[in-house]
Amino acid sequence: MKGLLLLGLLLLFGGQRSSACPHLCLCHGSQVDCSGRSLTSSSLPTSFPSGTTELHLHNNQLASLPNGLLEDLTSLRSVSLHGNPWLCDCGILYLRAWLLHQPASLRSHLGVNCSSPPSLRGRLVVYLTEQEVLDSCHYWYCDLALASQVCLFVFVVVQAALLVVLLILLKKFQRLSKEARRTTEESYTAGEGLRENEYSHLK
Prior knowledge:
alpha/beta, Leucine-rich repeat, LRR (right-handed beta-alpha superhelix), 2 domains, four-stranded mixed sheet, two-stranded parallel ribbon, 48% helix, hemostasis
């Protein structure tokens, strides 16, 4: 009896959570409007009401969608995703796969264009090949490697410049030391000669 009661409570509260309107969105019946709210991939709601038929996510700052976000929305008839800066790297694979499995009548793919990387900018996400997406997953590694090489080159150049300056200062110090030693010796020799002359006059 207690088990049935617990199960009923779980179903009741679970149903309430699944039908609640997400934070930062507006809901009108089965329509959920989260458009134009500067949502990012991290601030996007993690779930939507299970009975949602229209979902508006356009004109935000979405670069990708979390895996599985739209899987349970079996009643969807319209989804708007345009006006977002989609990043077409490995993180776009879920959205691409979801779009590919949607009927053409849903028209969800319209306006879902890549904003980056530069090689894919302007391309429709749904028409990207898997190889293109996988290739783009590594482009930032190349930038990082190039930046590392540039930093290493700058470091070597700076070290070389410091070494040259050190050698110049060392040679200058040696030259000044020699001049000081020669001046001291000349002064000592002159002093000795002067004392000898004075001694001769005294005789």
